[in-house]
Design goal:
With about 425 residues, this protein is of the alpha+beta class. It folds into two domains: about 210 residues, no CATH class; about 180 residues, no CATH class. It has 13 helices and nine strands. α9 packs across α11. The longest helix is centred in the first third of the chain and has 45 residues. The chain is elongated. The model has no long low-confidence stretch (mean pLDDT about 80). Its main location: membrane. It is a multi-pass membrane protein. It holds the Pfam family FtsX.
């Protein structure tokens, strides 16, 4: 006979269906529902955690791949920025540094106007701190310094708002804080669009690149200049930035890091991950504890069988393990199949959503509202193991009460009431 005996009987109970026995059919039906609920809960939680991992990855690698980890500024017009860049890049915590001139401006094409952040960059150094080159044609950055006229690189969202295409011209307008006769002045310059980048992030809606000298001219030579930094450890950006500021001459240097510009987004992603994970875990718990109702009905249905086993010498421990084995089978099968479906879903969800968007001509995520304009996913096997293990553990815990009730069945009373 199959050993151990409790597992053998528990597995028989889990799979047995008596023909014509309504109670046995109902037990089997409820057991199936419990397993399906567990499968869906485990699969859904793995997919959700993978999607949240994907958003976290896109923030780190795509958004912060284009934007710097930290930037150090100075409003003085007499700073030797190449020298400051070289000094900062020599620090062991700094991977790369590049000078930048940032200007808040308005872009105008015909009657269309939109605000944007203009970054004046050095084409030779910007590629060290930013992966913007991955979204551009190889010659686009060099075209910014074309002597024939000023060039600008726009995010696709800006280009769509203005209705401008590559090769066309637009105007950039920068308000000036100075006044002349009580009227505010403004700097205006025309630019040719040399390229339009699509990073799939919110930067497509707000970022434009021009040559360093053009940005300086737009800003009127005042303020906005700085050095962008790419750091070894982005999570320590604020502390590293403060250290670097202390090493610079006391000339009113100041700075900010990614946590001040994108920290809220990072915190929102982490909070959403935790909250959604908790909600889906509750779904798994509900599905797992459906096993309780299944096993309670089995115990009621098998009173006579339990009594016969007890009279044949089965111990209370063996009776308890019999029903734990039945619940464990439901949990094991549900968690295993759910884990497999969750892995497959995590690997396919990005392409699946993109296919639905293409088929129906809709876009679920837009970069002017969400961090990215597509649904990212990153499967982590540690998450799979955690979710599958949690599903199995909750199923085992759910078996304890009905198993204890079964082990306390009194043979004489059960046989007398059944027969």
């Amino acid at each position: 006979m199959f050993r151990p005996l409790p597992a053998f009987i528990g597995l028989r109970y889990a799979g047995a269906q008596r023909r014509g026995d309504d109670s046995a059919g109902l037990v089997s039906f409820i057991s199936g529902l419990s397993m399906i609920g567990l499968i869906l809960g485990v699969a859904l939680m793995i997919v959700v955690m993978s999607v949240m991992n994907g958003f976290d990855r896109e923030l780190r690698e795509r958004i912060l791949g284009i934007m710097p980890h930290a930037t150090i500024y100075n409003s003085s017009p007499d700073i030797d920025w190449p020298a400051v860049r070289d000094q900062l890049s020599a620090a062991p915590e700094v991977v790369a540094a590049a000078e930048v001139w940032q200007v808040n401006a308005l872009a105008r094409k015909g009657r269309e106007v939109t605000p944007l952040l203009v970054q004046g960059v050095n084409p030779q150094t910007i590629v060290r701190v930013s992966n913007i080159g991955e979204f551009l044609a190889p010659e686009s950055l060099d075209a910014l310094t074309d002597p024939a006229g000023g060039g600008v690189i726009l995010g696709r969202g800006i280009a769509e708002k203005l209705g401008v295409k590559q090769g066309e011209h637009l105007s950039l307008i920068v308000p000036d804080s100075s006044t002349d006769g009580g009227r505010s002045a403004a700097h205006l310059a025309g630019f040719r669009v040399v390229d339009i980048f699509h990073s799939g992030t919110a930067l497509d809606q707000s970022l434009a690149l021009v040559d360093w000298q053009q940005a300086q001219s737009l800003a009127g030579g005042a303020g906005g200049a700085g050095v962008q930094l790419r750091l070894e450890n982005m999570l320590e950006a604020n502390w590293i930035m403060r250290q670097l500021l202390g090493q610079l001459p006391a000339q009113n240097f100041y700075g900010n890091d990614w946590s001040s510009t994108h920290g809220n987004l990072y915190q929102a992603i982490q909070m959403s991950r935790n909250l959604v994970g908790l909600l889906v875990l509750l779904i798994i718990a509900i599905a797992a504890f459906n096993v309780v109702s299944t096993l309670v009905m089995v115990v009621i249905d098998k009173h006579a069988d339990i009594a016969i086993l007890r009279t044949m010498g089965a111990s209370t421990r063996e009776i308890l393990l019999t029903f734990v084995s039945q619940g464990a089978l439901v949990g094991l099968v549900g968690a295993a199949i759910g884990g497999l479906l969750g892995v497959v879903g995590s690997l396919l969800v990005t392409d699946l959503v993109a296919g639905i968007e293409s088929l129906f001509g809709v876009q679920f995520l837009k970069s002017d509202v969400y961090p990215v304009d597509y649904l990212p996913s990153q499967l982590q096997w540690g998450d799979v193991a955690l979710v599958v293990g949690a599903g199995l553990l909750l199923s085992l815990l759910a078996t304890l009460y009905p198993a204890l009730q079964a082990s306390r069945v009194q043979p004489a009373a059960a046989l007398r009431s059944d027969y």
